[in-house]
Specification:
Helix content is about 80%, strand content about 0%. By secondary structure, the chain is mainly α. It folds into two domains: about 30 residues; about 130 residues, no CATH class.
Length: about 160
């Protein structure tokens, strides 16, 4: 092979490998993290949604369970879970609602709360004949959006866990 052909082949391979390495990051779509005005509004809207969900989980959902409000206690007694189950679910909701506000935990918290909502949906179908079964399903939608939009924080969390381990 001539020197010119070798340098063209080498340049083509180098260009191809650089292009291939750069392609995934250049095509990657980032929601709610863009520096544009639209991205800024999306970031603010997503943060507002996180705050609203955090308030819901901490105040409207976890607090009645943790203070053993009669309306919460009735449901858990009817299921046979008693106060222990009520306090466990209350603590999980409190932790998830709080973690929605901590940047490195946002995605994981949204996924965990989504799992809790799947459980709540199953419980409402089996113990309460589907009464209010739509509520957990409705809550899964914004939680899934948060988990997906904040998924970049999962790598940060993994780095923190590995560094401490």
């Amino acid at each position: 092979m001539s020197e010119t052909a070798a340098s063209v082949t080498t340049a083509s391979v180098t260009t191809a490998s650089v292009t291939a390495a750069a392609a995934p990051s250049s095509r990657r779509v980032v929601i709610a993290e863009s520096a544009t005005a639209r991205g800024g509004r999306a970031r603010i809207a997503l943060r507002g949604l996180q705050v609203l969900l955090a308030l819901f989980y901490v105040i409207a959902s976890a607090l009645p369970k943790l203070i053993a409000h009669p309306t919460a206690a009735e449901g858990f007694d009817e299921m046979g879970w008693g106060s222990t189950g009520m306090y466990i679910i209350g603590v999980l909701e409190l932790a998830g609602g709080t973690a929605l506000l901590i940047p490195v935990l946002q995605s994981v918290a949204a996924m965990a709360l989504s799992g809790l909502m799947v459980g709540a949906f199953v419980v409402t179908l089996t113990y309460f004949d589907g009464e209010n079964a739509a509520t957990p399903l409705i809550l899964i939608v914004p939680l899934a959006l948060i988990a997906w939009a904040r998924r970049g924080h999962n790598a940060d969390l993994l780095r923190l866990v590995r560094r401490r381990g």
